[in-house]
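Handoff note, outgoing to incoming analyst
You'll be picking up this chain. Sequence as last confirmed:
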Amino acid sequence: RGSEAIMATTLANALTDKLELGCTDDSCDGTADTTAIALTDTAATEEHVTNPNNTTTLAPASKHPSLCDVYFLHDVFDTEFLTELEALRDTLAPDSNSFNMVARRYFFCCEDIAMRVLSGIPPCLGFTRVLPDMRLLAYDEGGFILPHRDGVMHDAVTGQRSTTSFLLYLNTAEPHTGETAFLDSLAEANVVFEAHPTRNSLLLFPHDRPHQGLGVGSGGKLLLRGDLY
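Most recent structure output, in case you need it:
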């Protein structure tokens, strides 16, 4: 327990230092290698992705006033797509050099996967592009991410800047563990909404919403993390 406390204190101190940069999820620190992925299966995205959430209106995930543009969608994609994402991890090199999380990150770049994610998001939300630079995040038991806001990403293709983060959960975490918890502020860190990691659920939220990843149980947590606008 002593070593865990020291680790948490060290991470918290590093987080405080980096908050001034406005980029606290290690998404724009420029230190990680990104692997370009070219999938052999390039059939139309409609054949890969189902979209039961293709509606004209959607209710926010929470009634809290600060979360009116946070959405938590369920049963978004088909099993084939999820299985491909899980297998992708085995082809990538892990990166554990994160200042604010205890997890392994697997960076890659793939336009095909980006388009397939976009095709699963209801058009009524107004998103037009998912950036191809993404990462798989794998948390073992006890893994977590400290309170933070996500950094804005630059789209090298269009010149646009991202506005929104997405988390696609690839497994279901043990009950009452691993939640993505939204906070009223980084200073107070009071939880106002929790999204429990559930396989094939997609969480969408603006980059500037304070949040954290709570401690993960013995089943671990695996997700796809990316950015869109």
